[in-house]
Amino acid sequence: MALVSADTKIAELLTELHQLIKQTQEERSRSEHNLLNIQKTHERMQTENKSQSTCPSTSPYYRTKLRGLYTTAKADAEAECSILRHALDKIAEIKSLLEERRIAARMAGVYNDSDPPRKTMRRGVLMTLLQQSAMTLPLWIGKPGESPPPLCGAIPASSDYVAKQGDKVAARVKGVDGDEQWILAEVVSYSHSTNKYEVDDIDEEGKERHTLSRRRIIPLPQWKANPETDPEALFSKDQLVLALYPQTTCFYRALIHTPPHRPQDDYSVLFEDTSYADGYSPPLNVAQRYVVACKETKKK
């Protein structure tokens, strides 16, 4: 019943999103006329200034006209921005409902073709899903003067943050050989009485469940940081991090080689590797979603 309700709500949100996209295009088309007027006004000013023998200047007429045109352009841009933010909210709500539906289906033992049970999932499929999850991580787009929130890029979670059921985290677990390692895991539950998480190893076909204290859990970013507007929300060059090694589900210590230059870029990192003379691997790309602050201070 809950699955049907979620499907209905998602269909409604998709319809609303479609309308918002249409409104965005209508708003953009309307504003283009005003932008064209601004361009033409500047061209007329340049033509008149060239014909003047005296020092060129902007006449009171053009100053007044341009002030009005730019005021309108600013209002148009703010209106379009408002619609786009509303659309982003709808997308976030849809993604949240899809995640809730996936968790409910897993709990009920019901699966569909796009979300098979992990016991039947081939490793290649899992790697593809992890890559898609990184690509679809939303980009934080703040308002002018607004600072990026916790869990945006390199900004850690607040001290009282509790990861939700279904959230992906880096979890420090003890292997069968007794060694500890950081793995990609999914939160099953959190107990406020014991302050401990139950998490599933994302790569153990649902068989490996771990009970871990909060200090052994690092929530993954919920937004990508935009290097062009919020560079302070990114790890800097030579900073020590934990990064998901490509084509695996384990996090290893690494140094940032090159931070992202554009919103869609990955980090370039150097993994600690004693098989190389300098102790580090060649640069490898890792998505923002899978790079977190390193809690360890000493190399074992």
TrEMBL record:
Gene Ontology biological process terms in this record: regulation of cell division
The gene coding this protein: SGF29
Cellular localization per UniProt: Nucleus
InterPro entries the UniProt entry points to: SGF29, SGF29_tudor-like_dom, Tudor_SGF29_rpt1, Tudor_SGF29_rpt2
Gene3D superfamilies in the record: 2.30.30.140
Entry coiled-coil feature ranges: 3-41
Entry keyword set: Coiled coil, Nucleus, Transcription, Transcription regulation
Domain named SGF29 C-terminal: residues: 159-300
A GO CC term assigned to this protein in UniProt: SAGA complex
The protein's name: SAGA-associated factor 29
Pfam family, any one: SGF29_Tudor
Taxonomic source organism: Astyanax mexicanus
